[in-house]
Amino acid sequence: MKSRLRELREAEQWSQGDLAARLGVSRQTINAIETDRYDPSLPLAFKIARLFKRPIEEIFADDG
Amino acid sequence: MVNYWLAGSVAALLLVLLIVGVARKQWFPEGLNLSARTALRLNAWALVALAVAFAARWALRQPGWSDPLRAAVALAPLLPGSFYVLGIVRWIRGLDELQRRIQIGAVAFVAAVMGFAMMGVDLLHGAGFLRQFHWGWEFAYAVTFLLWMIGCALSTRRYA
Q: How far apart are CA A12 and CA B84, in angstroms?
């Protein structure tokens, strides 16, 4: 799955650690999502969508 | 004798891995960045189990125990050991989803390799090899810990 998380995070001028703290996950999790190595669970994807006030499909896209 | 050599080799390998692991932090999951207090709280029951195991071994050398009592004393370390496992399970449940996945990957790696290793040793025993070798708990614990570290590193690399 492709994600626009890095782009959205950088627009807010947050570090990976800042975003991790806001979402209650580890920095490694944010890095893995940003590099498309890990697909977040639905609850985490919803949390990310709520934080950036965007629909999920605007942040994550199926690359299949 | 074989056991001591093997346990010593595993301990030396563990030490090397620890040193390399500290030097190359990205090999290990962030969930393992524990404070000294958390690390102590997590491992306290393991230390109790270790102390009970040594005490039981010493106690069982003394004569005059009935068989049921000998069995109970021999198995006594399993009680604090089970509290240790419960603590580890609780710690894994408290991790975030990626860290949990890394730990589950590491635990699956340990289970698979230990299963194959035990089967391999048993097959070799059956064929007449490694007669002097038996799985002591010290050796099994050291190997489990070593495999868990390798499992953590392998599982972490997938997401690094």
A: 43
